[in-house]
Design goal:
TonB_rcpt_CS; 5-stranded mixed β-sheet; 993 residues; transport; Immunoglobulin-like; TonB-dep_rcpt-like
Length: 993
Amino acid sequence: MSGSNALKRFSPKKTLAALAVGSVLFMSAPAAMAADGLGVMQGRITTEAGSNLSNAKVIIKHESKGIVRETTTGANGSFSLKGLPIGKYTVTISKDGYYQVREQHIAVTMGNALTFDVALDLEGSGVERIAVSGARISRVDTSSTTASQVISMSELNQLPVELDATAIALLTPGSVAGDDGFGGVSIGGSSVAENGYYLNGLNITDLRKGMGDIDLPWEAIAQTEVQTGGVSAEYGRFIGGVVSLVSKSGDNEWQFGAKAEIAPDSLAEPSLRMKDDGTIEEAKDGYWQETEYNIWASGAIIEDKLFFYGLWNPFEEETTGYGENQINDNEWKTNRWFTKVDWFIHEDHSLGVMAFSNEGDYTGNEYQRDDNGGRGDEIGLTESTYGGIGWNALYTGYLTDDITLTAMYGEITQSTKDNSGTLDQSTYWDLRSGSWERLGDWVGYGSSETEDKRITYRIDLDWVIGDHTLRAGYDYERLEIADIYTPHGDGWYEYFAAGPDNSYGLAEGTEYADLRIWGKNSETENVHTALYVSDTWEVTDTVTINAGVRYSEFSNTTGSGDKYVDLDGQFAPRLGATWDVLGDGASKLYASYGRYFQPVSPNTNLRMASAAYDSHIVSHLDGVNADGSPILGDEISRRVVADGSVPDADQLFNNKAGSMYSDEFAIGYQQQVNDDWAVGVRGVYRDLKQSIEDVSFNYGMNQWILENYDANTWHAGNGETSAEDYFVGGWFPTLTNPGIGTEIYYDVDGDGVKETVNVNADQMGFPEAERTYKAIELSFSGNVTDDFTLNGSYTWSKSEGNTEGLVRSDNEQADPGWTTSFDYPELMDNGDGYLPNDRRHNFKLYGVYNVTDDFSVGFNSYLQSGRPINAFGVHPEDQGYCVQAVAIDGTCYGRDWYGASSFYADGEAAPRGSMGRTDWIYNIDLNMSYTMDFNEAGRLNFKLNVFNLFNFDGVTGVDEQYEFDSGAKNIRYGYADSFQTPRYVRASVRYDF
């Protein structure tokens, strides 16, 4: 077989190298089929003289499934085959009067469009070729502006990377890990709750909070695509990035295998913790170990027609934690499984069905520590269940050579149940010393039961018309969220010593107890619908325009079933242009603009629009019993935050408010330098144009009452009732876009008729929500030698504003849409600055060296600058918005209720992110893989992953609580409170046959 250098990239010896060059560098996912996890092959057939050839026949055959697709070239010699199962293909091109050409082992991946251009020779012009010699095979998709990276499971098996969506996404430029408090990945400056995750076209994003994907059996995954920008109109409901997965499936040849994996405690270094004296110690008394097994089978039930893949994946994690007085033993057992059936009904019609489970059980035992520090009497047992089932069916139809239709329906159910612990005992926390101290032998805060369900379907149509590839579709999604929570005992007690200037008017040092009684019982619903249309227009042979628009509608219901969020008119334009600079498909200059909308989280339904009860009873604390329970004196105050009824829908959402959305602008250049190396540069600007936040409306409401009270028009107005009698105090939640005026309906005067309450932006008192992200990404990938592949990137970025987004890292609020940001105007004083996901410099380098055909060494490393540090303290009553709040309401709730939650220290302004940064973080992970090939008897593989090889102990977070609610200085301020994960080892043995 003859072949050019371009074809040699796809020789068996260089498969990994070729994929590294072809997929790592901001590669552009095509508009077609990306959401379904299917591939695209496109190209142009010309004559030897360079003119286009129409009506040439292109036949491709999947080499392991045997399925065949064929098409003919258009007037300009181009062809496009969409909806292709991933894998290797044999391509045959023929036309009367020309020699036939054929090429084998052409790898089609998800996302990236494979470009296959070839020149045909006239018969009689020379020696007939049975293989392509003048072809150009390129993964620089000059037709798209989506920045993405595709990596296969075979590549991941040679890298020291944990098999989860977060770890894989972190390989891409522009992504940083979320704070240790709740993990996840921030893409393009977004919060970790603003990404979308898909498996075979099914939305597998966490149903309730959107923080990552649901738990999956990762051995079943074949390829992962991470889209970090320029995302096409078929995707929506996120403003961060997209992680799309495609599963393995059966082939004509039956295959079986098994794998056992362990991360042993004996090979894991102890975690670190900061002591009260500021020194760091190793937590040598802890225990952590994971074990996992995989058993699978796949093959053809009917050759070339019906294929099966099945996997069983039990997983177990065990931990032991030692507290000052307790020992906690925890065990999670998850019995995951996955199955997929693919039926190629006809050469033009196919149906794929998948199903999976991630159901599991948790057991927690808590013991008293005896005199020797070991396990004493058992305190309590907690048993719970979690997880559920997911499935979908995907139809693909090739209606004509130019029209492709896909339709998908799927469901996911995830639930938890925990009705254990010490049900009759309240929880007791002592904060009188200024730090949290647990008292008593209670186990668990309350009993809970949740059930969440996502129902989704979509239909997509592709139509190639000359130089235009049109794509249009409709998708629907319904989320059903059910939640029951009952507190144990009386509720949650906290003990305090009053500060010098406390909201209860107590003498300094007076001890008091705050009993919080909180619970809920609610069912709510979110519905998301969207229509989109896009066009990929080849203006010339070297210039392509991508234009599209997505129209979407979002709604949320209360626990009574009434809509309180009903957002429509959400038009999201997506526009991009590419230029094949050299005209050879090896380079691309591109630019893109896109608008992305984010729905209101289902979590907000539960926190704001459910049948919840929440009250605080504050009493003098006369003493504490031996079991931690309080000896209560006189009651000081009683505050009801929620009385157990479902709030009225028409007062929960500002009538003037619009959707949460972000704009992205990007420009980049990509160049495949030669057969071995590719480079890229990309500039990105993202701007959160509008956010939706929960705010307290009481300041604005009370100003409106003062301005609008009229004794002649108000039913109770007779000169004896003052406007202040109708004041709304404390927490009065409303969803709005901060910085705008607000209109709601509320029965202010109690006559049974709701008034239209309309206040302006100044009366609301909130600044506009702001978040900008600026970045320059440089990257490269290639082959140092035939056996050594290398991928690297450097990202300079800056993330600024006054909101991180749906969640808040600096106080570990994994509570999308319901954080303390914007609760009261005074909490936003000095709130503009560097955001928690601002990592100014980020270097990444990973690669694989094939020492021999059987033994490889892989590594993954990064160098990252630190995150901004804050100082949280008590808001001075005579500064910022507190002055206006006291004038309006007689109190400043952001100070009196929230304590040390403001950007102040010692009564002085401490702007967001202005207190320095944490140290740089260095990390190197190592992988070693050895395979024994027994030919017909199968292959045996041994693999060792060592994470944090040199056991670096960088500080990833510090205590940002500058002072306590009492105003007293926190001596632990600035102390490290989170560190790099210490070195640990994950070893596996695998057998395939």
